[in-house]
Amino acid sequence: MRRWLIHVSVLALIGLGTGLISGPVVAQEDPMATPEVSEERVVPPDECQVEPRAADEVFALLGVTEGAAEETPDADRTPVPAPPWVAADPETATAVDDTTREWLACINADDNLRIAALMTDEAIVRFFGGGLAADEAEEGARANLVGTPVPRTEDENVRLVAVTDISRLEDGRVAALALINEPVLPPRGQETLLLIFDEGADGLLIDDIVQFSVVPVMDGTPQAGTPEP
């Protein structure tokens, strides 16, 4: 099956309503403490145990049901207030850790319907909708979404380095920073995801994802303030 790209431009911060630079995130008892790094970084595909989302529901959300509109439905982002935020309680922090870890396990398992089960409707549209080619036939799109999962090899698995700054937002949602290592998809290495969670029927669901990537400077790349030859 297609590997869905965990990639949302930092330009999405405009839609989220924050640039994450107005103040420190208050999310640990000691905000100056060095975050603990998980010793068990690999998230095995077999940790993906959530009940899969019904295929028909996902098809309807993505507009690939028979007779649906040609374009994938929009999913407007709910603005996120700029930091500082308030530290989440331990129970919420544990729920964030659990959801994040299982979501990455389902990505490693290549199980799209279980990935979808850990996301809100709006997040499903943003996450999967961008991977559907504009001219892709409905039948092909549906087959791609529900095809037989082909788990990544151990070397290809996304690794979870740490989940930090777990915070409760004013509107009741939860924010966290997930430091991951993605060896397969761009930028192919360590990156940080801002994850926004919302309450679902059975626990926290991922509601939005923003990826922060620092691209290494290559030899010959013009630098700011340096005129090109």
Explained architecture:
The protein has 229 residues and is of the alpha+beta class. The chain has a single domain, classed as Nuclear Transport Factor 2, Chain: A, CATH 3.10.450. 25% of the residues lie in helices and 19% in strands. The chain has 6 helices and 5 strands, in the order H-H-E-H-H-H-H-E-E-E-E. It has helices spanning 12-16, 55-62, 90-109, 112-117, 121-129, 138-146, and strands at residues 86-87, 159-168, 174-182, 189-200, 203-212. It has a 5-stranded antiparallel sheet with strand order 1-2-3-4-5. It is globular and about 45 Å long. Mean pLDDT is 76; it is low at 4-15, 18-39 and 224-229.
Features:
alpha+beta; disordered C terminus; 6 helices; 229 residues; 5-stranded antiparallel β-sheet; Nuclear Transport Factor 2, Chain: A; 25% helix
Order of strands, main sheet, comes to 1-2-3-4-5
Name of the level-1 CATH class = Alpha Beta
Number of domains: 1
How helix-rich are the residues, as a percent range?
Answer: 10-25%
Helix and strand arrangement:
Layout: H1 12-16, H2 55-62, E1 86-87, H3 90-109, H4 112-117, H5 121-129, H6 138-146, E2 159-168, E3 174-182, E4 189-200, E5 203-212
Antiparallel strand pairs: 1-2, 2-3, 3-4, 4-5
